[in-house]
Amino acid sequence: MTDIYHQLTSRDFRQMETDSLRDARSQYSTAFDGIMSGLRALGSMAFWARSSDGYEDEQAAEDLYSIGELLMHLPRIAEALRQNADDANFELWCREGFPVSPNTQTKTQIKTEDAA
Question: pLDDT tens digits for 52-90?
């Protein structure tokens, strides 16, 4: 049985137009960052909520159960979003050329220097 990760990553970016692909990459990356930020906040909330005097044990147990249920699913969803962003980025590189550092030499440059 597949999980949500496999459903979210079953996209064929080669079929998308370049502008749509750029938009998708941005949306996936932003969603990934937002989910990871939310997970950190939930962890902080869960930690500090127990130190409050007005926070009843029954409510704490319900909240922790809900957070646990959320945390079981969100990491795989976040990973799928990151994978989609990476796949979209790779497809853009294939279309537009891989980025090259100014310090990177091409094979032609190396052969020319060796011949000199």
Answer: 777 777 877 787 788 887 888 888 888 888 898 899 889
Degrees, nearest 5: CA angle 44-47-48? 85
Among residues 31, 34, 32, 36, the alpha carbon closest in space to that of 71 is found at 36
Taking the C-alpha atoms of residue 20 and residue 99, their distance in angstroms, rounded to an integer, is: 20
Residue 7 predicted with pLDDT over 60 = yes
CA distance 85 to 22: 9
Got the DSSP string for the chain?
---HHHHHT---GGGS-HHHHHHHHHHHHHHHHHHHHHHHHHHHHHHHHTT-TT--HHHHHHHHHHHHHHHHHHHHHHHHHHHHHHHHHHHHHHHH-----TTPPPHHHHHHHHH-
